[in-house]
Write a structure and sequence with these properties.
7-stranded mixed sheet, two-stranded antiparallel ribbon, 7 helices, alpha/beta
């Protein structure tokens, strides 16, 4: 590859990946558009089409199978025109607030008519940059969840899923202009906060979905997810390898179905713990 071409691609893609995945103080990494660097003249930059929020519960230490499943689901979902955010949350303990770890996009490709009116040299620059962008994003999407999983601890006093989802809705989802939104939520979905706890005598207690959601809504913990479609990996997960009874899991699912409904969203698939389908199905 020509030296100038390599330099342009590096500026457009690789130089924005500045994080250190092993650092506890890693800041949000971003992967920008090739259209920021490759000048396509008067052609309108194609709009992005989908957005994926990957949310990792750091109060649960998931086994390798769950982690690998999450990785595969994200990789299978991604295609040109997508934006992806990796976020971690736990309890509102020191240094454990909801954190955006990685944001990136895969450019929407030029259509055939746009390519026809674009010079060959520019197309070569753009195609190579977008190829490198895809490779870098997929590599980083592998690293970012690993970073999140490594921060997990069972020593944290609370699991504040509700407040974290409200924060994500107001601080991240609300700023999005993309209509087609998805969420991959990697969590056992076992809320354990001062407002609501699902634990009782060492197991999942009896849940009254509508009654409990009323209390959550009155406390102001229901945000606007703007019709985000959610997919859950890890529902009811138990680190000791045991499984919760179906009656308990059905009650857990009913609570979160109602919560997402009132948050202007929906749960498309609830994995207990594995997600049998793909994101977007």
């Amino acid at each position: 590859m020509h030296t100038k071409l390599k330099k342009i691609i590096a500026v457009a893609v690789f130089s924005v990946i500045t994080w250190n995945i092993t650092s506890e103080d890693a800041q949000t990494a971003e992967l920008f558009s090739c259209y920021n660097t490759v000048n396509i003249g008067n052609i309108k930059v194609p709009d992005l089409s989908r957005e994926l929020f990957v949310v990792v519960d750091q109060t649960v230490v998931f086994d390798k199978n769950i982690q690998e499943e999450a990785y595969r689901k994200i990789q299978n979902f991604l295609s040109p025109g997508d934006v992806v955010h990796i976020l971690g949350f736990s309890a509102n303990a020191e240094g454990r607030y909801t954190q955006k770890i990685f944001s990136a996009q895969l450019d929407t490709k030029l259509d055939e008519e746009q390519r026809y009116t674009t010079g060959k040299a520019t197309l070569r620059l753009l195609d190579n940059c977008q190829k490198a962008q895809d490779a870098e994003l997929r590599k980083s999407v592998g690293k970012a969840p690993i970073y999140s999983f490594k921060q997990a601890s069972t020593e944290l006093p609370k699991t504040e899923i509700l407040s974290s989802l409200k924060t994500i809705a107001s601080d991240i989802v609300a700023k999005s202009e993309i209509t087609d939104k998805y969420m991959l939520l990697i969590s056992d979905m076992m809320e354990n906060s001062e407002l609501v706890t699902f634990y009782g005598n060492g197991k999942l207690k009896r849940i009254s979905p509508e009654k409990d959601i009323d209390r959550v809504q009155n406390a102001g913990l229901v945000g606007d997810l703007q019709q985000t479609r959610a997919y859950i990996i890890g529902g009811g997960y138990m680190a000791d390898g045991n499984y919760r009874p179906s009656s308990e899991l059905n009650a857990l699912k009913s609570f979160w179905d109602e919560y997402f409904k009132r948050s202007n969203g929906s749960i498309n698939m609830f994995g207990t713990p594995s997600l049998l389908g793909e994101i977007g199905q």
